[in-house]
Design brief:
single chain, 153 residues, mainly alpha, elongated
Length: 153
């Protein structure tokens, strides 16, 4: 039975250089503007979803049109700048997530293809080692270390 090849992908040297260059450019722009949080830190902060975003837009409008009602400890300009920066990043983050999903799905299929081929090779080597084919036993013993469970009799 032939193995199913779920995906076949190859990259030219030019494509690899271009990909790296684009990632370098994205990182260069975002490095000084974005921050990385720990998982614990991520849980400590609130989220701004669609409903909250629309509500926040209303609040900003009131803060702008009725500044006398805005408490002095709130910085309207900084809040607007944060909101606008979020508006810039949000659609780009969605694009980034779509790209990450595509990359992860491709990696999954590539990994499955590689592992399936390697398992088929390993099973063949195991069979050849049992038949005392010259050189097969050493290869089998080396590869069988991946599966340290109880050896088959």
């Amino acid at each position: 039975m032939a193995l199913d090849n779920l995906i076949s992908v190859q990259f030219t040297d030019e494509e690899k250089v271009a990909l790296d260059g684009h990632f370098d450019a994205i990182e260069a722009i975002l490095k000084s503007k974005c921050i990385s949080l720990t998982p614990e830190q991520r849980q400590a902060y609130g989220r701004l979803g669609n409903k909250s975003e629309n509500w926040s837009r209303k609040v900003l409008n009131y803060m702008n049109t009725q500044p006398s009602l805005t408490p002095p400890f709130l910085d309207y300009d900084e809040t607007v700048a944060d909101f606008e920066a979020r508006q810039v990043l949000q659609p780009r983050a969605a694009r980034g997530e779509a790209i990450m999903d595509m990359l992860n799905d491709t990696l999954l299929l590539l990994g499955s293809d590689v592992y399936g081929s390697c398992i088929a090779y390993y099973r063949n080597i195991r069979l050849l080692a049992r038949q005392n084919v010259n050189g097969a036993k050493a290869v089998y013993e080396d590869l069988s270390a991946q599966f340290p469970g109880k050896p088959r009799t």
